[in-house]
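Exercise 7. Given the encoded structure of a 436-residue chain, write a plausible sequence.
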C-alpha cells in the first residue's frame, strides 16, 4: 500500500491532470465522431488490466482510490483479467456495443489490428504535450501510422532469472555468457538432480521467447526490422534460429511435464518452480520477481535470485548485446477517451511510476522513477535494457495478432517434439499472406 504522504502527493497530482489536458486537448486531431461521444458530467470508466496478483493488484487498487478521491466525478471500475485471456477477450469486446473504456495493450502489431474495429480512440491530440517527456521514445510503440492509440506504463526486458543457491550446489560459479556455457550449466544441474530450466509450455508465449532470442542472435538488426515491417521471413537466419532452438531442445533442459505447465498461475507454474527452489532458471521478463513473490512463502527470495542476459550464439549476425523486450500499456476506446487519457497521464506521472518501481511491478517508462527500483538486480536489468543498442519487441506483439499467434503455435509445436525449423518460417509467412 502507499504510505500516507505518498497518497497526498498522488491525489494532488491527480487533481491537476485533467486541467492540463483540458488546456491542450487539441480537438482538431480527434475525429468529430469521438468528440460527440464524450460524456458530459460524471463518467464511469471500465478498466481491464492484468494485475491479478500482488504487488500490482494492490498498487492498482490504491491508484483507483486516489484518483477517485481527487476526481469525485470519475468512477473507475477495475476488472483484473488473467494475462492470457486478453488475446481472446479484447477482440471480442471491440466487436461488441460496449467495450471497456480502458484495456491492457502491448502496442505494435496487436494495436494496429485492433484499431480496424473503429472502437479504439486516437488520443494523439490529448497526449502530444506530455507523452514524450513521460515515456521517452518508448511511447512511439503505441503509435500506428504516427498517431497515438495508447500509452505504456512499464517497459520490459527478457533474460534468465536464476537461483544463486542452486547454481552454487551445481558448482556453477558465474552466469553463462555463451550457449556452450549455458549447455554446460544444464548438464551440471542435471548431475545434481536439479531441473535446469522451467518453462510454462501450456501458455505457449514463454516457448516463443527462445525462438525470439535465437533470431535476435542470428539475424542482423537490419534484417529484423525489415522482416517485421514486411511481415515476412525470407532471410536464412530465421531458419538458422529454428535450428538453434531444435539443438537446444535436444539437450532436454526443461522440467518434466513442461508442456502442461502454466507460466504464472500457482506454485506449480514455471515461475513458482523457480520461486520455490524446484528449478534453477527461467527465461522471463523483469516482471518475474513480482510474479514469483506471490507464489512462495519465502520472504528472502529477492536475495536468492540473480539475472543474466540471453547468451551469445557463435557465428550469429545479430548484435550480441541486442535485447528482447516490450512493455505494458493501455489503450482507450472512443466513448470517454478524454477521461481515459487523463487517467493514463496520471499512470505515467512520477509519483505513480515511483510506486510501481518500488513495489517491483516492472521497469518504469518515466526515467525519473528508475532510482526507486526495488532491488539491485532490477536496476541491473533496467540498465542493461535501456543501454542495449537494439531492443526487439516480442514477435507475437510486433507482428499482427494472427501472425504472432501462428509463430507461437509453430514454436510450441517444436517444443512438443514435432515440426521443423523450416516449418516455423512457413507458418509465419502463410499466416501473413492470409492476413492481408
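Solution.
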Amino acid at each position: 500500500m502507499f504510505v500516507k504522504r505518498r497518497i497526498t502527493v498522488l491525489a494532488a497530482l491527480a487533481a491537476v491532470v485533467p486541467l492540463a489536458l483540458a488546456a491542450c486537448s487539441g480537438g482538431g486531431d480527434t475525429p468529430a465522431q469521438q468528440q460527440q461521444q464524450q460524456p458530459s458530467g460524471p463518467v464511469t470508466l471500465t478498466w481491464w488490466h492484468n494485475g491479478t496478483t500482488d504487488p500490482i493488484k494492490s498498487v492498482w487498487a490504491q491508484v483507483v482510490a486516489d484518483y477517485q478521491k481527487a476526481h469525485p466525478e470519475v468512477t473507475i471500475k477495475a476488472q483484473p483479467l488473467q494475462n492470457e485471456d486478453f488475446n481472446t477477450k479484447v477482440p471480442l469486446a471491440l466487436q461488441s456495443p460496449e467495450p471497456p473504456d480502458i484495456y491492457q495493450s502491448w502496442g505494435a502489431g496487436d494495436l494496429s489490428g485492433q484499431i480496424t474495429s473503429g472502437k479504439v480512440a486516437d488520443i494523439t491530440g490529448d497526449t502530444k504535450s506530455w507523452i514524450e517527456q513521460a515515456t521517452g521514445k518508448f511511447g512511439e510503440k503505441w503509435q500506428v501510422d504516427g498517431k497515438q492509440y495508447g500509452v505504456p506504463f512499464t517497459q520490459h526486458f527478457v533474460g534468465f532469472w536464476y537461483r544463486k543457491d542452486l547454481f552454487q550446489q551445481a558448482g556453477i560459479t558465474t552466469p553463462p555468457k555463451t550457449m556452450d556455457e549455458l549447455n554446460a550449466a544444464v548438464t551440471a544441474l542435471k548431475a545434481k538432480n536439479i531441473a535446469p530450466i522451467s518453462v510454462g509450455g501450456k501458455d505457449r508465449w514463454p516457448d516463443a521467447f527462445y525462438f525470439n532470442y535465437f533470431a535476435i542472435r542470428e539475424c542482423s538488426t537490419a534484417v529484423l526490422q525489415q522482416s517485421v515491417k514486411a511481415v515476412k521471413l525470407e532471410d536464412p537466419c530465421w531458419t538458422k534460429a529454428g535450428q538453434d532452438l531444435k539443438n537446444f531442445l535436444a539437450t532436454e533442459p526443461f522440467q518434466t511435464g513442461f508442456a502442461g505447465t502454466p507460466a504464472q498461475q500457482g506454485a506449480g507454474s514455471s515461475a513458482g518452480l523457480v520461486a520455490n527452489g524446484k528449478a534453477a532458471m527461467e527465461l522471463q521478463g523483469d516482471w518475474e520477481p513480482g510474479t514469483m513473490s506471490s507464489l512462495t512463502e519465502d520472504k528472502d527470495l529477492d536475495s536468492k535470485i540473480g539475472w543474466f542476459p540471453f547468451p551469445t550464439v557463435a557465428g550469429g549476425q545479430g548484435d550480441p548485446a541486442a535485447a528482447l523486450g516490450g512493455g505494458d500499456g493501455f489503450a482507450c476506446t472512443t466513448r470517454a477517451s478524454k477521461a481515459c487519457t487523463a487517467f493514463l497521464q496520471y499512470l505515467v506521472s512520477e509519483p505513480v511510476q515511483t510506486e510501481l518501481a518500488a513495489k517491483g511491478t516492472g521497469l518504469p517508462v518515466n526515467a525519473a522513477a528508475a532510482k526507486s527500483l526495488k532491488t539491485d538486480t532490477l536496476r541491473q536489468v533496467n540498465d542493461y535494457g535501456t543501454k542495449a543498442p537494439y531492443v526487439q519487441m516480442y514477435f507475437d506483439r510486433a507482428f499482427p495478432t494472427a501472425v504472432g499467434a501462428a509463430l507461437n503455435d509453430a514454436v510450441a509445436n517444436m517444443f512438443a517434439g514435432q515440426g521443423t525449423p523450416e516449418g516455423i518460417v512457413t507458418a509465419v509467412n502463410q499466416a501473413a499472406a492470409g492476413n492481408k
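Remark. The domain at 4-156+326-387 is CATH 3.40.190.10 (D-Maltodextrin-Binding Protein; domain 2). Students should compare their own answers with the one above.
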